[in-house]
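Page 47, continued from p. 46.
Same chain as before, 132 aa.
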Amino acid sequence: MRNPHFLFRFVLAAMALLAAPALIAAGPAKAGKSSAAPKAQATLREIEYPDLENKIGQKLVVYTTNNTTRSGTLVRYTNVTLTLQLGPEAGSIELAVPRKGVRKVMIEIGPADPLFLNEGKLQEGESGAKTN
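Result:
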């Protein structure tokens, strides 16, 4: 044997080749928790079918008489049908739902503005002014 360290180098190279896939699969280490504030979730409110006329472009959730739920953006409204643009998870298609097939319609309301959380909490008869 000419090189006495040949066996050591061979074992070291074999270990590196065997460990490489595990190191690549692990990927980079994850950082700590992100500093982004949590998103406030939008809420839903029930709306009557005739009121949809003024809500074109709004996000809706439609509950049908076939026990299905469809969620999308209102594209067209008539007295007979409403048409929703479904999201990419549903194929990004337009779906026409006949009025007879609509059981309930919910409109998506954005989250409350954090600067004005107490705005709607005044009770009737209170002026909101503090007395000395």
